[in-house]
Each structure stands twice: as structure tokens, then as C-alpha cells.
Amino acid sequence: MTKEEKAVVINSLVEQLNAYPHFYITNIEALNAEQTASLRRKCFDSNIKLVVVKNTLLNKALESVDKADADLVKVLEGSTSVMFSETGKAPAVLIKEFRKTSDKPVLKAAYVEGCVYVGDNQIDALCNIKSREELIGDIVALLQSPAKNVISALQANAGQKIAGIVKTLETRN
């Protein structure tokens, strides 16, 4: 591979690292052609971009976007592929589901929600991680809950009694 070709690949990786907020570094070595095609199809269906890369080129791309965490650089050994995703937990769910029929892909590391997760033992934690939008939804639901309780209490039969008490108190003044 010439220097120009390497520069093109690095620039492509930099663009993808900037375009996608989450990425998983995995090992899909030893998958046969049928399994690889199946994995790529599932990635496409889940809006995950799967790219097989050379470790040195990925390392240079990571340095260019300031995501070259020391833990990420350590895992760049052997066969490496990168899963780019808009949703933080989508690749983890896909990996876990795909492993029901195969022992690969193996998670080397992941960059999700600005945090680095290293090791295959992090799959369960990544599957349970909530996105920013899900967390905001949970907070809104928690904030609405007390108001809903007051409204439902006022609309119920007890609410008529409360309204009667308020009316009585108003007439006393």
C-alpha cells in the first residue's frame, strides 16, 4: 500500500470517527464467508457500519480526532474491525445476539457516550447502557409523575371531597 493510499484510508477513518459518536473495536477473525456476510447484513439492518482496518491506520486516525485513549491503542493487535453506530448500545446488542450462533465477534474496546470500555466482559454493561435521549425521557417521566398523581387524585372521587373542602374554606373567609 502506497503512502497516498494509506492517507486516503486514514482520512476516510477520520471522517467516520467524526461522523459517528460511538464505535466498537472488534475481532471478527475466523468467521467464514457465510458468517461474515450474515454479520454484515445484520449490521446493515441495524444501521451499523462495519469496517475492517489495519491497526496502524486506525491508530493514526484515532490520534487525528483526539480519541486515541491509551486503552484503545493497547487493544490494536491482531485482526481488527470497527463498528460505527449512531446508537451507543446497538453494536453490543448485535454482538450478543450474533454470538448465539458463533463465538465471534469479540469485543476489544468500545467508545460509547465519551467513555472507553475495554474487554469482551463489557458486553453486558454496554447492552444495558441508556442513550442520552432515553435518559432525558426517564427524567421527564419522573418529573411528570408527581403532577399526574395530583391531577388523578383531584379527578377521582376523593377529588370531589377536596374540591368541597376548598369551597367550604373559601366561603368561611
Q: How is the topology of this model organized?
A:
Layout: H1 3-19, E1 22-27, H2 33-45, E2 48-53, H3 55-64, H4 70-74, E3 80-85, H5 90-98, E4 106-112, E5 115-118, H6 123-127, H7 132-155, H8 157-172
Antiparallel strand pairs: 1-3, 1-4, 2-3, 4-5
Helix pairs in contact: 1-3, 7-8
Structural overview:
The chain is an alpha+beta fold and 173 residues long. The protein has two domains: 3-129, Ribosomal protein L10, N-terminal RNA-binding domain (Alpha-Beta Plaits, 2-Layer Sandwich), CATH 3.30.70.1730; 133-172, no CATH class. Helices cover 57% and strands 17% of the residues. It has helices spanning 3-19, 33-45, 55-64, 70-74, 90-98, 123-127, 132-155, 157-172, and strands spanning 22-27, 48-53, 80-85, 106-112, 115-118. A five-stranded antiparallel β-sheet has the order 2-3-1-4-5. β4 (106-112) and β5 form a beta hairpin. α1 packs across α3 and α7 (132-155) crosses α8. The radius of gyration is 25 Å and the shape is elongated. It starts with a helix and ends with a helix. The mean pLDDT is 84.
The assembly state of the depicted protein chains is single chain
Q: Into which percent range does the helicity of residues fall?
A: 55-70%
| SS strand fraction | 15-25%
The CATH topology label of the largest domain is: Alpha-Beta Plaits
Could you name the ranges where pLDDT drops below 50 across 5 or more consecutive residues? none
Number of strands: 5
Strand order of the largest sheet: 2-3-1-4-5
CATH H-level name of the largest domain... which superfamily? Ribosomal protein L10, N-terminal RNA-binding domain
What's the mean pLDDT score?
84
Shape: elongated
Q: In DSSP terms, counting alpha (H) and pi (I) runs of 4 or more, how many helices? A: 8
Please outline the major beta sheet: 5 strands, antiparallel
Elements, N to C (H/E): HEHEHHEHEEHHH
Radius of gyration: 25 Å
Report the CATH architecture of the largest domain.
2-Layer Sandwich
Which class of the largest domain in CATH terms?
A: Alpha Beta
Cα separation of the termini? 90 Å
Q: State the domain count.
A: 2
Q: Find the structural class using helix and strand composition.
A: alpha+beta
